[in-house]
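Researcher: I'm preparing a figure for a lab meeting and need a structural model of a single chain. I don't have an experimental structure, so a prediction will have to do for now. The sequence is pasted below. Please return the structure as tokens so I can convert it later.
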Amino acid sequence: MAQKLIQPLNNAGITASYKWGTKYESSYGFTHYGQDLVGLFQTDPDAVYAQGSGIVAFAGWDNVCGNVVGIIYDEAVNHFDGGSYKVVGRYFHMASIKVSQGQRVTKDTQIGVVGATGQYVDGKHLHVEMDKDINYPNYTPTLSGDSNILKAGYRGSSDTSIDPMRMMHCKESHPDYQYIKVMNGSDWVDPRDAQIPHI
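Model: Understood. Here is the structure written out token by token.
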């Protein structure tokens, strides 16, 4: 049975959207292939959790994106198109990592702490990517050249990345009590991004 992936931060503010607008590109010189989140008003606002059940594909220090973790999730629901499939979740810029390669995780497994490590970081946040290519989990369209852990682009001929919001659900019930909102005043955020299913 397909699972519904939940937020990696229990209380999340969205500061940049997936492939959204031209101002991000003009500021950094490249397309934003992920979702940027910050923690809000909770006991531990910077705790990053796995979004569901899966296996850690990689974890460590990347020379470009700082502390990174990649998780291959068991079959998961895409609430946008109604499909379900295995996906890779990639998490960048963390202050520290709390999992290791090959480890089995669930939504209750803390994988790291929100940080500002690596390049192209203006402040503390979590960059989240989703991708259908589970055979090459460390390949990301974010990079134009290979780093030590992350590799540039895709292994196939087309973009296999997915808008993270299409895979994400807000779990309002115990013990997660999740909340999500769009941070106002940012030209980098799609205002529809907080309209994810609540479960």
